[in-house]
Specification:
By secondary structure, this protein is mainly α. It has one domain. Helices cover 78% and strands 0% of the residues. The longest helix is centred in the C-terminal third of the chain and has 25 residues. The model has no long low-confidence stretch (mean pLDDT 84).
């Protein structure tokens, strides 16, 4: 398979996705937050489709690992909201020029970081799951960062419960987002090629995460990731506007 990227671009993208998969495999979210700001600077085609599609494999692996802690009620209503948000975002994405889509991605990441740092604590219920799922669908489809709105609802849960529920939600929600992109013609051959290239990086990051779960459950790495993601999204927006 001939890829339209240089070896340097491929190496950088591979390493970025490994780190993102390591973080999400350890704390239940973070693949988009870690990878999107950097991948957009390599090639915008990497976002959002390839990250969403390759993240599907990561979520599937995590669901299998944490299957004993799955909460199907929370996953079900979160996914209903995700589908609604995906429809809204997919229709919007098809109308945005590339630069505006990049700015939207950067602002979505900033919003995700702000939500994660806000300390807001809301109990999971049908209404809150639908609302968070809708916001997550919009952010996930526009910028591959759909995790934080849902993670706010689960922040009081223990690590295994949070990872299991988030993985089940991201598994189904990511599928909905990719189907939305396919429907509006935003997932074509270059996106398929990038997805296939990212899969080994996903597997590598997931394998490494098995040894990091107990360490990263303390929350320090997540805070560091959010800070780096916020700084990267600011750089992305400034560079696009400039």
């Amino acid at each position: 398979m001939s890829l339209p990227w240089s070896p340097e671009q491929l190496l950088a993208a591979f390493c970025i996705v490994v780190v993102g998969a390591l973080v999400q495999g350890s704390v239940g979210m973070g693949l988009g937050l870690v990878t999107v700001p950097f991948l957009l600077q390599i090639d915008p085609v990497f976002v959002p489709g390839p990250i969403l599609a390759s993240g599907f494999l990561l979520s599937l692996l995590m669901v299998c690992r944490e299957r004993q802690e799955l909460n199907l009620f929370e996953i079900k209503w979160g996914v209903v909201g995700r589908v609604l948000g995906t429809i809204i975002a997919s229709l919007t994405l098809s109308q945005l020029p590339q630069d505006e889509a990049a700015i939207a991605a950067g602002l979505a990441i900033l919003l995700a970081v702000g939500l994660s740092f806000s300390g807001l604590s809301v109990e999971p219920a049908i209404g809150t799951l639908l609302g968070a799922g809708t916001v997550s669908g919009i952010m996930g489809t526009l910028a591959s960062v759909g995790g934080p709105p849902m993670a706010l609802l689960f922040q009081r849960q223990k690590g295994p419960q949070l990872r299991a529920t988030m993985s089940g939600y991201l598994l189904l929600g990511g599928m909905a987002s990719v189907l939305g992109l396919v429907f509006v013609g935003s997932f074509r051959l270059p996106e398929v090629q990038a997805t296939l290239f990212f899969l080994p990086a996903i597997l590598t990051g997931y394998a490494l995460s098995g040894r990091m779960v107990s360490l990263l459950d303390g929350g320090y790495t997540r805070s560091a990731v959010l800070i780096v993601s916020a700084a990267s999204s600011v750089v992305l927006v400034v560079r696009t506007l400039g």
